[in-house]
Amino acid sequence: MAPTNPLANWERLATSFYRKVPVYYSVFDEDVELENYIVAGAPYGGAIALYRDESKPLRFRDAQTSRSNIDIYSRSGKLINRLNWEYGAIRGLGWSDQEELLVITDDGTVRRYFGLYGDFTSFSLGNGAEEYGVRACRFWNSGFVALLSNNQLIAVSNYNEPRPRLLAQCPEGEVASWSLIPPAYTLSRSVEVLLAVDKTIYLVDPTEAEDKVLQNGPFKHASVSPTGRFIALITAEGKVWVVSSDFQSKYSEYDPESRVTPRAVEWCGDDAVVIAWEDEVHLIGPNGAAARYYYDGTVHVLPEFDGVGLITNDAYEFLHKVSDVTESIFRLGSTSPASVLLDSINLLDKKSPKADDNIQRIKPALPEAVDSCVKAAGMEFDAYWQKRLLKAASFGKSVLDLYNSDEFVEMTEKLRVLQAVRDFQIGLALSYEQYMRLTPEKLIERLVNRREYLLAIRISEYLQLPADKIYVHWASQKVKVSTVDDEAVCKLIVQRLDGKPGISFEVIAQAAYDEGRSHLATQLLNHEPRAGKQVPLLLNMEEDEIALDKAIQSGDTDLVNYVLLQLKAKLPLASFFRMINTRPMASALVETTARAEDTELLKDLFYQDDRPLDGSNVLLSEALKETDMPRKQEKLQLASRLLSDSKEPTVVLHQKLLNESSQLLKVQEALDKDLTERSEFLGLSLNETIYRLVRSGYGKRAQKIQSEFKMPEKTYWWLRLRALVAKRDWGELEELGKPRNSPIGWEPFYNEILGAGNTKLASIFIPKCTNLSAEERIEMWVKCGMIVKAGEEALKAKAVNTLEALQSKASGPSAIEIGRMINQLRPKK
Amino acid sequence: MAPFPESDAEYFKDKARRGLLDLLEGVRGKKNLVINQGLAGPVGLFVKFSQLQEHGVDRVFLLENGNVDSSQRNVVFLAYAEKIRQVRAVAEQIQQLQRNSSIEHEFSIFWVPRRTLVSNNILESAGIIGDVNVAELPLYFFPLEQDVLSLELEDSFADLYLHKDPECIFHAAKALMDLQQRHGYFPRIVGKGDHARRLADLLLRMRKELDAEESSGLVGLSYRNLLPSAGIESLIVVDRYVDFATPLLTQLTYEGLIDELVGIKHNQADVDTSVVGPAATPQAQESSKASQQFKQGQKRKIQLDASDQLFNQLRDANFAIVGDILNKVARRLETDYESRHTAKTTSELREFVNKLPMYQLEHQSLRVHTNLAEEIMRNTRSDIFRKVLEVQQNNAAGADPTYQHSLIEELIARDVPLKAVLRLLCLESCMSGGLRSRDLENFKRQVVQAYGHQHLLTFSALEKMELLQPRSSTPAMLIPGTGAQAGSRTNYSYLRKNLHLVVEDVSEKDPNDVAYVYSGFAPLSIRLVQCVLQKSYVLSLMRGGPTVQANTASPGWLGFEDVVKSARGSTFSIVQKGDDKAVRARQTLSGSNAAKAVVVFFLGGITFTEIAALRFIAGQEAPRRKIVICTTGLINGDRMMDAAVAKGTFAATDS
């Protein structure tokens, strides 16, 4: 086949060129009457959905055609799948970036078809959609807006967790046309809607509807450019206006000289607008320059971000702006270095020496020329010109001493991939720019959706991308369609996927389970390396115990808690307890949760587990929280009774102390009644109670309680000492100091009283501290300021040095006294 | 080239800040922020309130107070999704606002550190999952210092040892995965304790799962093909329960004592203004606070971190020498300040004036720390402090604990704080393998009578945590795992001898052993780390001879297996291998002379003294190694007791 002229189908529009590249021929059979269909194309040259337009008259044929379907075709016209449609009137048909088909019906139900083969999820728009009915929908790459018949707008901006949100209230009136600005291009970071009502246009966002105050309406079409910077409008007179998206400036006006309102207004890149009637397409550039195309049959416009696809029964064409590099190479009379380089290839083929002359001529600009050729190769759809340009680049770079060939190599790889998927069998009409934006991973996803596993695997191997998802998808399909028995399928899958990294068996198992093959699902799950992933499916499959075990294995407490939550809701309490009590982590988590919110469950658990002490402790905590005294006592009694069977010494003690506590409460109640108006004693500890009694001068009562509760003497003495010191009751303290011995010795008396500042009383106790050394006692006297006494002590101990030290501290009579003592000791020496 | 671990602190700080602010940015307009109490402090470590304001935060509420109002349309919640209680609190408050408020609120929840299934479930059953925007904020490590990364999980100790809830192990594993993703896999994981083992197992499992996920393209390219790290030598995991005794002792470093007496939370201490005086007014950023805090009895927040040079000098020193250092600094400051008189030329004078703000700052910090030190001194000189310390030191030294009992009884009768008493009892139990049951019963009765019968619960909790036990009981059978016989309890009396825990002649001024942090007792936890890092030193201690040079290169526990067996829990040393060829290739590329980092992870909490001791080791190893300290949170004896102490009283709570 002769190479096509690279300039074929170029159209000049003002200063730049546009070209219409035919990609596929004979797309649809004759009997697909495109004029009667609504057509929606997935972005990035993806699948197209056809649905019969119900407003068009229907030519009766047979029952088959009269049933409504949504047909999914590739761009080359290959029927991928046919969805039977019996859910009511379709008001919106669109695609997401992930090539998911969205179908919105009259009553506000949204169906999201993923994977092209009829799997779907659905949700409802709510917000009055059911009541008023959906009129129309507009889509962007990750969401859509629905217009209700009462002019309400509902936006959905995320399909994974759809959360339909009402936009601001819109004005009344007939909506002539409308359009949206995707969130990525708005200031508010939320989707905004242009609504043409009456003569003007409103800009509606979630908070308000702003009137843009225009006069030339009603506008029959409004379309926003791919970057959201410009808006194309069709005025009431049928003129095309291009304005900035803030409606502040008008850039161009064009009169198509047609009274019929165009069927579609789309942007071709960011610089040109395409308006289309049934069989006529106008391409309008800046300043009203235009090119016109005429067709024999109906033509549909499928917008892309870098151009538009034009589809007719005969052909699928891609209309886009000619890139600068392409233009500089192919433009007639071009003298750019790249153009010269390409020319030298021809000369080289003819073995003409001029090839070298050319190279020498452009030598300084050769690197750029090579770059340009590489880039231009990417822009071409025709393999001949791709090769030609790459050959030129290769020739050019062979002349260069130093050139980084990475881009050249990458381009060859990219072109190979592009050529493979553009094949009419696959039908992905991807332009280079689109491929760059789509990314290879997503491209492989699309191939997988089309069940082109072999090609997908080849490409991922070629590009060194992970292929596990492809295998998983394949295996899931295998599970769905194969009819052989479970063992064989499992074996086949495991064999085939053996040694492939990162295979998610959970997904395959889920597919098997969805098919109702739960045995197969369990078998497959055993091959899943990630424990956490298995759990939700196992729960679904009612494999509760395994699910719990796997969750525990994963170490993820959240997962365990989740399983426990489900099981608790599902199982009878007894079997729930049985299930957890052999698993320490599970029961610990149940305990933790229950402690905070469900003490009854806790009690049951401890009862079943035969842990009386824990059970009793729960009751004790409850008693603490109880404000009402009789109820408090009641809980304490219950807590004590739980322990009555046990013989273990610690438990016995525990019970005894519980009873003691209830006894103490009784005593305190009585004290409160007798001694004070307010509740003063209730809730104190035993020690505090006695301390307070002594301090308030109720020594007798304190004594009585001490004996009643068998408080150790030592403790009792300490309490009395501290309380009396606090009370500054020196008389009573002296009284207390009368006996020869005290269980706590006399040093504490000295310390505490000294601490309270009564040196005189403190000093009384010094001689009683017979267990201490003389030095210590001397120190004590000194602290009381009684140097002479200290001296006497030293004298007794015959410590001359100490006495001398003391003398230096003393003054006046006491110094003399000390001196006397020193002398007393000296003579003996 | 992989970034150096030094910058970990900055890296995590930056990452956390960017994460939070980006999420806040995502909520349009002004908003009220409702934050869980346990997060409020840690968040303050990496972001200032003014920064929050710049991102549209109007007011901040605490989740626990439940008082968020409807002054803003946007309400943002920030809470731990792992804590069911907090999730419920969030759900309740949203419902409440929806009911009571006249305006239609826009709710956002940022779950820390991840969105959980349970949180979804709770929001769903509350019927609000459709009304809220849910996002994740993966906060794991909060950098406290350049060398200290903490998860700041307040309840981790109670969760782990009392409730047996292993959530924080998972949390820790995730955090360490973060670290590994930054530096490559830890070439070796060494550890002690059953929980530590679990953590290591989780790390291995997560790595395997990540490998599985990596190739399935679920995660970004950055995680691919991780190799054993070139910059990190190993990870050492120490389970707190291996050494419960150390934190029960009173910390004797400066920072430790501040923590014991005042309490340090998230690098801040609330000190009474009567001690340190009101906040200095000239500091612009604190002026607003200062005006409120002039009154007596008010608390003043003191920032305690490395930004305060003086504090940095003091923090890890034994308190005995803090006075000296303060004096020295005061004198230096004085002479520096006096240098203005000697300044002759104008340029000298200008130099002095330029330094003036620095002097003032230093001066201020000197005043604060002098006051603090005096306050601490007042405490340490008290009779009770000395008696408590006496009991502790005797226990640590291995003296017969029964001789201490009358002293403890006296302390009870004198109504010293309950936690101090419990610490002593627990210390004895840990050090000598439980109390004689007669003694234990006796103490139980006395404590309950002195502090209230609600503390029956406290004792149950302590017993469950195996902090306070009767001597005869054998919980060994209850603990699963290897070495149940030998490793069910840490045998301090054996280890004291063999690891030379008691160092009599340690110099506080010029420390030669980590024992300086407790004035003569080397924390077991730290000795264990030394068994891995400083084998020759520990061997020389054991044999009493000069430093032996052999064995230094042997990895893991090698050479100490028998000794380590006497500490509680399983012992392990795992090598994480990577693609050999790649490793060798990198070795030849980068050479191996760069200092390697050792990550030490304390599961269940670390004390300031232990941090000081690790820094001491790091100082000794300086040219060859660095130590990065990671932990679930900071702990001391009082906080351990807090986990157990019953909160309620029998008082009729009528109001």
Descriptive report:
- Chain B: InterPro entries: Sec-1-like_dom1 (IPR043154), Sec-1-like_dom3a (IPR043127), Sec1-like (IPR001619), Sec1-like_dom2 (IPR027482), Sec1-like_sf (IPR036045), VPS33_dom3b (IPR043155).
- Chain B: It comes from Aspergillus lucknowensis.
- Chain B: Keywords: Membrane, Transmembrane, Transmembrane helix.
- Chain B: Belongs to the STXBP/unc-18/SEC1 family.
- The complex is a heterodimer of chains A (829) and B (655).
- Chain A is an alpha+beta fold and 829 residues long.
- In chain A, the strands form 7 sheets. Chain A has a 5-stranded antiparallel sheet with strand order 1-2-29-28-27, with no helix packed on it.
- The longest helix of chain A has 27 residues, at 649-675.
- Mean pLDDT of chain B is 83; it is low at 1-6, 216-224, 281-296 and 473-486.
- In chain B, the strands form 3 sheets. In chain B, strands 6-7-15-14-9-8-13 form a 7-stranded mixed sheet, sandwiched between helices. In chain B, strands 2-1-3-4-5 form a 5-stranded parallel sheet. A 3-stranded antiparallel sheet of chain B has the order 10-11-12.
- Chain B is of the alpha/beta class.
Task: Summarize the SSE layout with pairings.
The complex is a heterodimer of chains A (about 850) and B (about 650).
Chain A: E1 10-13, E2 16-25, E3 37-41, E4 48-52, H1 63-66, E5 69-73, E6 79-84, E7 90-95, E8 101-105, E9 109-114, E10 119-124, H2 129-132, E11 134-140, E12 143-148, E13 153-156, E14 165-166, E15 175-181, E16 192-197, E17 200-204, E18 209-211, E19 221-224, E20 230-234, E21 240-244, E22 250-254, E23 264-268, E24 272-276, E25 280-284, E26 290-294, E27 300-304, E28 307-311, E29 315-321, H3 324-330, H4 337-349, H5 354-362, H6 366-379, H7 383-399, H8 406-422, H9 432-438, H10 440-449, H11 453-462, H12 468-481, H13 486-497, H14 505-514, H15 518-525, H16 531-540, H17 544-554, H18 557-570, H19 573-581, H20 584-597, H21 599-609, H22 612-625, H23 629-642, H24 649-675, H25 686-695, H26 699-708, H27 713-727, H28 730-736, H29 747-756, H30 759-764, H31 774-783, H32 787-797, H33 800-809, H34 812-825
Antiparallel strand pairs in A: 1-2, 2-29, 3-4, 4-5, 5-6, 7-8, 8-9, 9-10, 11-12, 12-13, 13-14, 15-16, 16-17, 17-18, 19-20, 20-21, 21-22, 23-24, 24-25, 25-26, 27-28, 28-29
Helix pairs in contact in A: 3-4, 4-5, 4-6, 4-7, 6-7, 6-8, 7-8, 10-11, 12-13, 12-14, 13-15, 14-15, 16-17, 17-18, 20-21, 21-22, 22-23, 23-24, 25-26, 25-27, 27-28, 27-29, 31-32, 32-33, 32-34, 33-34
Chain B: H1 8-26, E1 31-35, H2 37-46, H3 49-54, E2 57-62, E3 74-80, H4 84-100, E4 106-112, H5 117-125, E5 132-136, E6 142-145, E7 148-150, H6 156-162, H7 167-183, E8 188-192, H8 194-215, E9 232-239, H9 245-248, H10 254-261, E10 264-265, E11 268-272, H11 273-276, H12 287-292, E12 299-303, H13 309-314, H14 322-342, H15 346-380, H16 383-397, H17 405-413, H18 418-431, H19 437-451, H20 455-464, H21 484-487, H22 492-498, H23 524-533, H24 535-543, H25 561-565, E13 571-575, H26 580-590, E14 596-603, H27 608-620, E15 625-631, H28 637-644
Parallel strand pairs in B: 1-2, 1-3, 3-4, 4-5, 7-15, 8-9, 9-14, 14-15
Antiparallel strand pairs in B: 6-7, 8-13, 10-11, 11-12
Helix pairs in contact in B: 4-5, 7-8, 10-15, 14-15, 16-18, 18-28
